[in-house]
Fold each of these.
Amino acid sequence: VQLVESGGGLVQAGGSLRLSCEATGFTFSNYAMSWYRQAPGKERELVAAITSTGITTSYPDSVKGRFNISRHRSKSTIYLQMNSLKPEDTAKYYCKLRVLQRDFWGQGTQVTVSS
């Protein structure tokens, strides 16, 4: 299994970014996937999840209405569209796959939101 995130960067408050996570080494369409983030000195937290079919998504209140997770079956890629970004969204963002109670993580992509 390999997960490779991209799309992070520096953006001003109120701006947008779209993160991508390309997945290889497993049957992409069979598994739910998720995005997490971790800011310095803080625990890693879930920011979005999507079912294997892409029909159902979920978000914590902190990002609901601003972030949107999606997946593209033929590209084996999940996305995180982030709008109305705030300085508190600054963190390293990771995609995660769980298979048989084992978690796989990408290397992460840094998102920095300036005020």
Note: DSSP finds no helices and eleven strands in the chain.
Amino acid sequence: QVQVVESGGGLVQAGGSLRLSCTASGAHFVDYAMGWFRQAPGKEREGVSCISWSGGYTWYADSVKGRFTISRDNAKRTLYLQMSSLKPEDTAMYYCAADPSGGSCLGPGMQRTGFGFWGQGTQVTVSS
């Protein structure tokens, strides 16, 4: 089992920034594909970004491209999502997910069904 824990959410004004963090257990974090998803009230969960095990491949949803940056520190077993120029429509519960096989973020795009381990989520609220 892989335990995933997110942190860093909060309330921010439009145009502001937040950095989400996510730690994942397991001795082989370096092999995991990692991803961020979000779900707004009344909407389906959507993929936001993913990063390959090496960090060499990243993918972003069109809605966040140019504003969000995903990164990872394998030594700390930590994933990050730097969010800038936040908009009210970014308001959602943000979830971190892990794919120990590594195959879910090798391009092109993100294979969402491969992410089998999820955190509890961290709320991001952007006020206008």
Note: The two ends are 40 Å apart (CA to CA).
